[in-house]
């Protein structure tokens, strides 16, 4: 048989993404698709990759990323190269309520403010609708397969700005209409960020109404919950009843049930040492929701730190008219008291919050890489005043890494319980730009760390199960067509890795054990070196 395939990946152990045991096979690729899985040595191709000693798996799907504001840039492949090098071939973007579209002439300013920590640099919005945005991104070309979610916050800004109230009847109609339009134009679902402005102002009735639109269109609702801590400013009474992170899950499950929507709980984490003990209750609540008929799952990253904006832990009453209130002595006096109470109640120290980017303010650049306690010592002020200083000077745009996410360096029980759960897809939740000198380790090592530390070394789950939950499972949750499995007809997106050594490579360093990454039948990473001669990805659209 002579060269019937463009590329043959020969001699590897195939883990096909379904969870079934690995098997020896050669993979035949033609015109960017998997065309054959055969016994070793039965097929030939114009090119051949020697996969002996390697596992051959589908390209990894990052179900929760924040690459949106990079994709319109011609050099986005260079900026996002660490994601390719760890085996990611498909990105789901538009998470936490923020997306590139739909926008209006007036709302682009608000969208820019909301996305400040996600952007590498400014660019003009050459679109208004989701369809126009997808066309524009597709015309430029993408270095990954990309699936877009429509952001509830972005839609809300296009209809009612950052108004801190429930929508009026005509506004709710407009929100529903814009959501439906985005889903019909190719978005795979609606995302919400209920700890960020303006999503923080949305109440259950609004969410349930939009969930009904999502359900009618057969899409998915993904959501950054209101609380990932056991006590927060968001629920009353504050000290009675269930922990607030449990209430948050209950609120979201109820909204999804009322609207009939499929639900994806974003980055299931437990922040603060005194929140860790709530993990069995939260996981049990999710399991009970599934048992009651709600289609719900969640995702998580394999680190005890996570990136966010410095304002993410501010209560809604401060975020409303933030620029004025962060300078008001009476507001700061109240906030100081609340912070003192919450930090003690949560078991969160000032040293657990590290500034990775100062919002582009020259005065804050020397503070990048320092935690709030260290910044306070350097400036000769209290840690609370140091936190307010960074928030105020950066206009709330500073990027931080917060520790105690489901554990710390000495205690990982909550994290391991989450990662081990059959309903958990793996994700990066990474913000990766050229801004700042320090980055989330998830940008570089998420998937290799799962394969190495948590599967091989700790044995929390089999390698086959690890691959399933980073390929076919997230692809099926979002509804990505032809993605996530090694099977005839599926996209020829592959990762070749050495199961004996695969793992993260250290801070801001490439992973180890990832030999090659193939996207659309083309090698885009070869032993850590990216080949970005042209964009090889595709803009995916919901059918």
UniProtKB/TrEMBL annotation:
Gene3D superfamilies: D-aminoacylase. Domain 3, Metal-dependent hydrolases, Urease, subunit C, domain 1. SUPFAM superfamilies: Composite domain of metallo-dependent hydrolases, Metallo-dependent hydrolases. GO terms for molecular function: hydrolase activity, acting on carbon-nitrogen (but not peptide) bonds, in cyclic amides; hydrolase activity, acting on carbon-nitrogen (but not peptide) bonds, in linear amides. InterPro entries: Amidohydro_3, D-aminoacylase_insert_dom_sf, Metal-dep_hydrolase_composite, Metal_Hydrolase, Metallo-dep_Hydrolases_sf. It comes from the Bacteria. It holds the Pfam family Amidohydro_3. Residues 47-525 form the Amidohydrolase domain. This is Amidohydrolase family protein. It comes from Polyangium jinanense.
């Amino acid at each position: 048989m002579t060269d019937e395939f463009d590329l043959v990946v020969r001699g590897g152990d195939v883990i096909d993404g379904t969870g079934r045991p690995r098997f020896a096979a050669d993979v035949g690729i033609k015109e960017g698709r998997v065309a054959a899985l055969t016994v070793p040595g039965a097929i030939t191709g114009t090119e051949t990759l020697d996969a002996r000693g390697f596992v051959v798996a589908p390209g990894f799907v990052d179900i929760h990323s924040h690459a949106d504001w990079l994709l319109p840039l011609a050099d986005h492949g260079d900026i996002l190269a660490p994601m390719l090098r760890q085996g990611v071939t498909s990105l789901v973007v538009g998470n936490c309520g923020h997306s590139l579209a739909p926008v209006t002439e007036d709302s682009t300013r608000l969208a820019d403010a909301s996305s400040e920590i996600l952007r590498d640099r400014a660019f003009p919005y050459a679109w208004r609708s989701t369809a126009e945005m997808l066309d524009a991104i597709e015309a430029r070309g993408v270095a990954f397969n990309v699936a877009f979610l429509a952001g509830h916050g972005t839609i809300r800004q296009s209809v009612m700005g950052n108004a801190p109230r429930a929508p009026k009847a005509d506004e709710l109609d407009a929100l529903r209409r814009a959501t439906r339009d985005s889903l019909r134009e190719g978005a795979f679902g609606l995302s919400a960020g209920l700890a960020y402005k303006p999503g923080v102002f949305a109440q259950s009735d609004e969410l349930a109404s939009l969930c009904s639109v999502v359900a009618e269109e057969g899409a998915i609702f993904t959501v950054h919950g209101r609380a990932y801590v056991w006590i927060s400013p968001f629920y009353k009474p504050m000290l009675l009843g269930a922990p607030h992170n449990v209430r948050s899950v209950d609120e979201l499950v109820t909204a999804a049930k009322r609207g009939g929507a499929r639900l994806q709980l974003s980055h299931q984490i437990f922040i603060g040492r005194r929140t860790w003990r709530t993990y069995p209750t939260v996981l049990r609540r999710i399991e009970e929701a599934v048992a009651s008929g709600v289609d719900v799952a969640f995702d998580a990253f394999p680190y005890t730190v996570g990136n966010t904006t410095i304002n993410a832990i501010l209560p809604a009453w401060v975020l409303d008219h933030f620029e004025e209130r962060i300078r008001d002595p009476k507001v700061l006096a109240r906030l100081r008291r609340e912070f003192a109470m919450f930090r003690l109640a949560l078991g969160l120290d000032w040293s657990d919050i590290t500034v990775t980017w100062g919002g582009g303010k020259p005065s804050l650049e020397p503070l990048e890489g320092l935690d709030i306690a260290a910044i306070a010592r350097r400036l000769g002020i209290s840690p609370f005043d140091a936190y307010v200083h960074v928030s105020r000077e950066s206009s709330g745009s500073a990027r931080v890494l917060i520790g105690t996410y489901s554990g710390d360096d000495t205690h990982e029980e909550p994290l391991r319980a989450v990662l081990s759960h059959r309903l958990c897809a793996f994700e990066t939740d990474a913000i990766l730009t050229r801004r700042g000198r320090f980055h989330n380790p998830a940008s570089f090592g998420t998937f290799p760390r799962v394969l190495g530390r948590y599967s091989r070394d700790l044995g929390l789950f089999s390698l086959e199960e690890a691959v399933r939950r980073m390929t076919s499972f997230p692809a099926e949750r979002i509804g990505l067509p032809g993605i996530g499995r090694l099977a005839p007809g599926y996209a020829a997106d592959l990762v070749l890795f050495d199961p004996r050594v695969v793992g993260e490579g250290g801070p801001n360093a490439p992973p180890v054990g990832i030999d090659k990454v193939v996207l659309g039948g083309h090698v885009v990473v070869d032993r850590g070196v990216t080949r970005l001669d042209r964009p090889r990805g595709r803009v995916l659209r919901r059918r």
